[in-house]
Amino acid sequence: MSYQVAIDGPAGAGKSTIARQVAKNKGFIYVDTGAMYRAMALHMIRSNVDTKDAEAIAKASETADISIQYVDGEQIVLLNGENVNGLIRTPQVSAMASVSSANPQVRARLLHLQQKLADENDVIMDGRDIGTCVLPHADVKVYLTASARVRAQRRYKELVAKGESCDLDQIEAEIKERDHRDMTREHAPLKQAEDAQLLDSSDMTIEQVVDAICNLIHKD
Questions:
Q1: Cβ partners under 8 Å of residue 204, min gap 6
Q2: Residue 86 DSSP symbol
Q3: Judging by DSSP bridges, how do beta strands 29-31 and 123-127 pair with one another?
Q4: pTM of the predicted model, to two decimals?
Q5: Cα 58 vs. chain centroid, distance in angstroms?
Q6: Mean pLDDT per segment of 10 residues, for the chain of length 220 residues?
């Protein structure tokens, strides 16, 4: 039996950073859903699909087999058996991903592939609807959050470290707007699953959050 950990929460809560570290500590596969969407976009480009042809995008998605493996500690994204790590971070792929990810059939196909991956491996997955939609029967569910101000401060520090000029209040306002959008969207809105553990990381270090989630995982 595989073991599944689902981490949901708003933007800027540190879900991916935490999930990667927990996966490393526990020897699980971190399912990078964003990378899977990018691999799907690469498949669309290779299939010469017109971005305006929703039907063609839907049909092309049926022939994409996307999975994730770890080789020597490195996450490998596989598209029809090929390692595409070095091919999915280009502007062209990003542009296609923004279009193809909105297609209902593409989302359904990737949902199937994500669930298949989780059925066959011990996984940890993060997002907005993992515990409610993608892995509704996960062994551990966590709703990871932090105050909008704290999340804004974290983002502000990241941007300043990169040498970018930014405004803390504006970042906070954008985060609140994103929260509202995610929580009120029609398809799979962001919400805490009824059986999820609430974890507010506002006053916690990354290490403390990782330890708290690791302590919830009891795998035989």
A1: 212
A2: G
A3: parallel
A4: 0.86
A5: 21
A6: 94 91 93 91 96 94 94 89 95 91 92 94 92 95 97 93 93 93 84 95 95 92
